[in-house]
Structure formats: structure tokens, C-alpha cells
Amino acid sequence: MANYRLNLNQQPNGDYEVHKDDCRYYPSLNYDYLGTFSTCAPAVSEAKRKHPSKKINGCVHCSPSCHTS
Question: To pair with 26 at 20 to 30 A between CA atoms, which of 35, 39, 53, 58?
């Protein structure tokens, strides 16, 4: 199980990225804590539920199976 956060700083491509707690890009400021999950998929789903107007994506480094663009 890992803690996941949504980085609330928009990426240049328009995405908002979900990060796992052991990621070097895990945000320490300007984030939304999503919860503890066994994989990135439910964390991304939670981010989409909480932020329906944002384009949510998994981090290419810590959540590659959830990274789509």
C-alpha cells in the first residue's frame, strides 16, 4: 500500500499528475492527498472523482501503468 497525492501544479501539456509516496516528484506543496491504495489505478480514479474538470494522469516515473499522455 502507498500514499498518493495529486500535484495541483498543471503540467505544460495540461495534465495534473498522480504521484506515489516514494516518487522523487511526490509534491510537498500544492497537492491534494488522495489516500492509500495498492496500485495507481484507484488513486487516479479518486483524483478524477474529486477533480472532474481536471485532466488527470499518472506520473510516468512512479505510476507508469496509469500514465496515458
Answer: 53
